[in-house]
Amino acid sequence: MTAPAPKKVVLAYSGGLDTSIILKWLQTEYGCEVVTFTADLGQGEELEPARKKAELLGIRSENIHIEDLREEFVRDFVFPMFRANALYEGLYLLGTSIARPLIAKRLAEIAAETGADAVAHGATGKGNDQVRFELGVAALNPALKVIAPWRLWDLTSRTKLLEFAEANQIPIAKDKRGEAPFSVDANLLHTSSEGKVLENPAEEPPAYVWQRTVDPEEAPDTPEFVEIGFERGDAVSINGERLSPATILARLNDIGGRHGVGRLDLVENRFVGMKSRGAYETPGGTILLEAHRGIEQITLDAGAGHLKDSIMPRYAELIYNGFWFSPEREMLQALIDKSQEHVTGTVRLKLYKGSVRTVARWSDHSLYSEKHVTFEEDAGAYDQKDAEGFIRLNALRLRLVAVRNARAKG
């Protein structure tokens, strides 16, 4: 039995050629009403053209949603993730991954607000984003139908896409008539480049791939120092000036970008099973990670810090795979947030030719005790004789194993 066609669909719409083709395809394939949703996540593009393009394609003004989500993105998604120091496969700061649950959330919310029975996205059947969008929608509104045109239509080549666009009077920018050199996704946290000139991992990315950062070799010859203030694990100020979450990240992007900080050339394991090569630029995020690690060094207990580090790979994998709204991610978040209760203070960092490193950190919540670690007279703060019994007890099991092994050989 064929499922009934949707009556109203909320489309995640960029205003670009591909999602414009999807918009028209939804109208012609299903005869349905289309609602467009365009999110400003700090990608640095003017979004009003998306409104004009949607209107040109017959979408009524009340069905066009363009929203500035930058503050919500950083406050409710990026900052919670950075409390965990999350890195996927030890390197990737999850810039694309963390944006998808917010888009899925708004798709589901707008569907509820407008009475839509379906949502649609432009992710291909080879990538991770289809999983992230659809798992998010399933968690928030399982009754919604999800339409993924790239898994359904017969527009399987760039030529067929252009022919469809021309047949349906969809404007085509001149540079779209050829193959793009690579695909770009951007938001306030990072810029991601994949495909075409980047598909051979044996070749260095061309210089023109990097868009948000200067070449570290061309960065200023004079280092720059920046101080970041934290409260309960979140950055709240730069050089003593209190700023909103999105403003902090934007300013750190500017600072890091001019020093060539945050470049990553990575071959990663996609959730769908294949390996892919990406060129990522995360200047502000790279600074933020280093700073957060720096303040945790003096405010986080060893046991808490080591436990937190041990769960980080699992937490990062959940985000990468699209499980932001899963019970297990929320459970881990509660543990992580508990660890941040005293992660308050200031970190000074030095930026120089692609590198950022902590050079000083201080906090009223510090656990660092100079009188315990000093090489000078400690006024009885630490009795070094205590170490003898500590070592003896920890060596006991090793001695028993050694005796057992010697006996077995004999």
Automatic annotation (TrEMBL):
It is found in: Cytoplasm. L-aspartate binds at residues 124, 128-129. Residues 182-400 form the Arginosuccinate synthase C-terminal domain. One of its GO terms (molecular function) is argininosuccinate synthase activity. It catalyses: L-citrulline + L-aspartate + ATP = 2-(N(omega)-L-arginino)succinate + AMP + diphosphate + H(+). One of its GO terms (biological process) is L-arginine biosynthetic process. L-citrulline binds at residues 92, 97, 128, 132, 183, 192, 268, 280. Pfam families: Arginosuc_syn_C, Arginosuc_synth. Pathway: Amino-acid biosynthesis; L-arginine biosynthesis; L-arginine from L-ornithine and carbamoyl phosphate: step 2/3. Residues 8-171 form the Arginosuccinate synthase-like N-terminal domain. One of its GO terms (cellular component) is cytoplasm. Its EC number is 6.3.4.5. It comes from the Bacteria. ATP binds at residues 12-20, 39, 122. InterPro entries: Arginosuc_syn_C, Arginosuc_syn_N, Arginosuc_synth, Arginosuc_synth_CS, Arginosuc_synth_type_1_subfam, AS_cat/multimer_dom_body, Rossmann-like_a/b/a_fold. Keywords: Amino-acid biosynthesis, Arginine biosynthesis, ATP-binding, Cytoplasm, Ligase, Nucleotide-binding. Belongs to the argininosuccinate synthase family. Type 1 subfamily. Homotetramer. This is Argininosuccinate synthase. The gene is argG.
